[in-house]
Design a protein that fits this description.
Shape: elongated
Helix content: 25-40%
Oligomer: single chain
Structural class: alpha/beta
Bound molecules: ligand BES, zinc ion
């Protein structure tokens, strides 16, 4: 797997390069590269013309033999990437380089980013390469790792700027890969306590403050959502808090991320069918996104307070598991009827949302693999976003910057009728119709007063079944980590004016 350590930034002219593979990316209307060798420049230009005229439908790859300074040349174009453009197409094109390198067992790749638009592309290239080189191979007897040296050739006058951009992009992509590791890990290993351990490690590594409430403290403080859901498991629940406090605060705004951390979702007594149930080891993807977004945020040091909260529990079938029909009182005093024990995410999130209020958050974004209905509605590539219009729009914009798509879904007040009962304040299920919206409406009951809130349903996007964009392997995508970092780093103004 590639990390920043595999990268080197140079300003060598093309004619002096010494590499296994030189890569030229045609960024359609922009120019990323500069070539001071006429013959090579002509070849590259002719190739790009062919791509434009649709005479060449794929990458152009040529070999010059072992004795040449540049052994192979790859010309690729973002115009070849279907459905995506801009930096997202660059990420995808860069991740495809990983396959070429693997195929030819190359040791060093040099990517030309010394043209006028090379600087803006450089971050996306690093991101695509790092995300594209991800493998979850720890359980394989024979591991085939991807490790090669990457030289990014940049304009000498922009070297420092590009270096900073590449470092930030690499840091974020590496933390996305760490989130993917956490989500891919089977539930026997990635228990609620293991998640707490991971949070403690993040805190140690980055200077964040970490607080973990174990089952005894949860009982003492009546965090009944976590206790009800986690009661059926021998791996007891945890409430995990990571706090980031900036050295200089420019605003009273305080953003809290709240993640669903169901380490395995059997459905509980309302048990799920066997087919594909194993995917429910990834039902803590929201929590993984929160923890690793916090890790990246701590290192990028924005000027706003940010808190990450994870509600972690395992939803099992057991003598102590909650039964359908149970009623418990949530932290804010509202009673909840458990109609369906498989609608467990919203139960533990009541505790996370309440804690966000206790922490003094002004803005709350919760993130959860919450409903199958969201996958039915939006598919595997788009997440659902509900709640405050402006906050949702900010999340959609941040997602656009990083290549993560969200679609604004409504919270129709009239559907609250479907969650009403005569013997409890709110039902945890209102049936299948509009289930992502009902889940959102349920959560709305538990949002602390005077906070601005948005809810993200990542049930479809958190886990992919086959190669998707720069996610070269199936499994966890780390979806929402990059959005959250962008929300905090590039949209601070939204929170400043809102606070
Ligand atoms: N973890 C599931 C949602 C899910 C489904 C995530 C598929 C990823 C892929 C959640 O806890 C769940 O089971 N939700 C139920 C809610 C229903 C009982 C109201 C659902 O969506 O069917
Ligand atoms: Zn469930
Ligand atoms: Zn679940």
């Amino acid at each position: 797997m590639l990390t920043m350590q595999n990268f080197e930034i140079s300003s060598q002219p093309f004619s002096q390069l010494k590499t296994d593979l030189a890569v030229v990316i045609d960024f359609v209307d922009h120019k990323c590269y500069q070539i001071d060798d006429n013959e090579a420049d002509h070849l590259v230009n002719r190739t790009i013309e062919k791509v434009k005229d649709k005479k060449l439908k794929g990458d152009f790859f040529t070999s010059y033999g072992d004795t040449a300074n540049i052994k192979h040349l790859l010309v690729t174009s973002t115009g070849l990437i279907k459905y995506h453009d801009g930096l997202e197409a660059i990420r995808i094109a860069a991740s495809a380089i990983v396959s070429t390198v693997k195929r030819f067992s190359l040791e060093k790749v040099t990517i030309l980013l010394n043209g006028p638009d090379g600087e803006q592309a450089a971050g996306a290239v690093a991101e695509g390469l790092i995300l594209g080189s991800y493998l979850f191979n720890k359980y394989l007897k024979e591991k085939e790792d991807v490790a090669f040296q990457v030289e990014l050739v940049v304009n000498p006058y922009e070297k420092e700027k590009v270096e900073a951009r590449v470092k930030a992009a690499a840091l974020i992509a590496e933390t996305v890969n760490e989130a993917r590791d956490m989500v891919n890990e089977p539930s026997g290993i990635m228990t609620p306590e293991a998640m707490a351990q991971a949070a403690r490690k993040i805190a140690r590594d980055t200077g964040l403050k970490c607080t973990v409430l174990d089952e005894k403290q949860l009982q003492k403080h009546e965090y009944n959502g976590l206790l009800s859901v986690g009661g059926g498991s021998s791996n007891p629940p945890r409430l995990i808090i990571l706090q980031y406090t900036p050295k200089k605060t420019e605003t009273d705004a305080h953003l809290a991320f709240v993640g669903k951390g169901v380490t395995f979702d059997t459905g509980g007594i309302s048990i799920k069918p066997a087919k594909d149930m194993w995917y429910m080891k990834g039902d803590m993807a929201g929590a993984g996104a929160v923890l690793y977004a916090m890790k990246a945020i701590a290192q990028l040091a924005p000027s706003m307070r940010v808190t990450g909260i994870v509600a972690a529990a395992e939803n099992c079938v057991d003598a102590n598991a909650q039964n359908p029909g149970n009623i418990f009182v949530a932290k804010n005093g509202k009673s909840i009827h458990v109609d369906n024990t498989d609608a467990e995410g919203r139960l533990i999130l009541t505790d996370g949302l309440f804690r966000a209020g206790e922490e003094g958050a002004t803005h709350i974004i919760d993130v959860a693999t919450l409903t199958g209905g969201c996958v039915v509605a939006l598919g595997k590539e788009i997440a659902g976003a509900m709640g405050d219009d402006n906050l949702v729009q900010t999340i959609i914009n941040a997602g656009q910057n990083v290549g993560e798509k969200y679609w604004h879904l409504p919270l129709p007040a009239e559907y609250n009728e479907l969650l009403k009962l005569s013997f409890a304040d709110v039902n945890n299920s209102g049936g299948r119709w509009g289930s992502p919206l009902l889940a959102g409406l349920f959560l709305q009951n538990f949002v602390p007063e005077n906070t601005t809130w948005a809810h993200l349903d990542i049930a479809g996007t958190a886990f992919n079944q086959s190669k998707w964009k720069y996610y070269q392997t199936d499994g966890a995508t780390g979806f929402a980590v990059r959005t959250f970092v962008d929300v905090v780093v590039n949209h601070t103004d939204f929170f400043k004016t809102a606070a």
